[in-house]
Design brief:
This protein has 235 residues and is mostly helical. It has 2 domains: 78 residues, Arc Repressor Mutant, subunit A (Orthogonal Bundle); 143 residues, Four Helix Bundle (Hemerythrin (Met), subunit A), CATH 1.20.120.530. 67% of the residues lie in helices and 4% in strands. It is built from 10 helices and 3 strands, in the order αβααββααααααα. A 3-stranded antiparallel β-sheet has the order 1-3-2. Helix 2 crosses helix 3. The radius of gyration is 19 Å and the shape is globular. The protein starts with 21 loop residues before the first helix and ends with a helix. The model has no long low-confidence stretch (mean pLDDT 85). This is GntR family transcriptional regulator. Keywords: DNA-binding, Transcription, Transcription regulation. GO terms for molecular function: DNA binding; DNA-binding transcription factor activity.
C-alpha cells in the first residue's frame, strides 16, 4: 500500500526561529506554499503538525493561521480545522462584483496622490508582464501592478481587503491562466489605466478599471463553465 505524501514535507525550515519572529515567519512561509500550490486546496493544516515542523509552540501557529484566514487563503472547517481555501469558483460574479466596489474606491482615493515613482513602478510591471512567460510570475506581477495604482489610498483597511481579493485572483491565475488564454488584452487594459492615472483622470481610470474587471469575470465565468475546467477539477 502506497503512503500518501505529506504536503508539509515540501516546506523547508532553516534552523530555529526566534520567538519574536515566529508568527510572521510561519505566516509568510505558509502563504508562499499556498500561493505556489505546494499546499493545495482542501488540505487541512493541523496546528500541532505545524508547531512540530517550525519547532515552536502552538500559539504563533494559531496567530499565523488567523492571519491567513483573514487573507482568504484558509477556511476554518468544523472537525478539520484550518483548510486551504478553494480557488475562485462558481461565485466568480459575486467575487468580482465586490472587487469592483473595493478597487474602484481604492483607485479613486489613490490616483490624486500618486507620485512619479509610483507611476514609474507601475509602468515597469506592465513591461515585465508584456514579456513574462511563467504563469506563476504573471499572477504575481498582475497583483503588484494593481496594488501600485491603489497604494496611496489612505484607508489602510480598504487596501487590506483589496489585496485579499488580488491574492485570491493570483492563486487562480497561477493554475488556470494558460488554459484560459489570457494575455495581450490584459496589458492593453493595464496601459490604458496607467495613462489615465498619469493624467490624474480619476473617473476615467475608475471607468477603465471597472471595464477591465468586468471583462475578467466574463472570461473566468466562461472558463469555469467549460468542459476543460470541469475536467481539470476531476483529474
Amino acid at each position: 500500500m502506497t503512503r500518501k505524501a505529506n504536503p508539509l514535507s515540501s516546506i523547508k525550515v532553516n534552523g530555529p526561529i526566534a520567538a519574536h519572529l515566529a508568527r510572521s515567519v510561519i505566516e509568510e512561509t505558509l502563504r508562499s506554499a499556498i500561493l505556489d500550490g505546494r499546499l493545495p486546496c482542501g488540505i487541512a493544516l493541523r496546528q500541532q503538525d505545524l508547531a512540530d515542523l517550525f519547532g515552536v509552540s502552538r500559539m504563533p501557529v494559531r496567530e499565523a493561521l488567523r492571519q491567513l484566514e483573514a487573507q482568504s487563503l484558509l477556511n476554518v472547517v468544523a472537525h478539520k480545522g484550518a483548510v486551504v481555501a478553494p480557488l475562485v469558483q462558481g461565485d466568480a460574479v459575486e467575487t468580482y462584483a465586490l472587487r469592483i466596489l473595493l478597487e474602484s474606491e481604492a483607485l479613486r482615493l489613490s490616483v490624486p496622490l500618486l507620485e512619479a515613482a509610483d507611476l514609474e513602478q507601475a509602468a515597469l510591471y506592465i513591461d515585465q508582464l508584456e514579456t513574462e512567460q511563467d504563469y506563476t510570475e504573471i499572477g504575481r506581477l498582475n497583483r503588484l501592478f494593481h496594488m501600485s495604482l491603489y497604494s496611496k489610498a489612505p484607508n489602510r483597511r480598504l487596501l487590506k481587503l483589496v489585496e485579499d481579493g488580488l491574492n485570491e485572483e493570483e492563486r487562480f491565475l497561477r493554475f488556470n491562466l494558460e488554459a484560459m488564454g489570457l494575455g495581450k488584452l490584459s496589458q492593453e487594459d493595464h496601459r490604458a489605466m496607467w495613462r489615465a492615472a498619469e493624467a490624474r483622470d480619476v473617473e476615467g481610470s475608475v471607468r477603465l478599471l471597472v471595464n477591465h474587471l468586468n471583462r475578467g469575470v466574463e472570461v473566468i465565468t466562461r472558463y469555469l463553465n467549460s468542459p476543460e475546467a470541469r475536467n481539470r477539477k476531476t483529474s
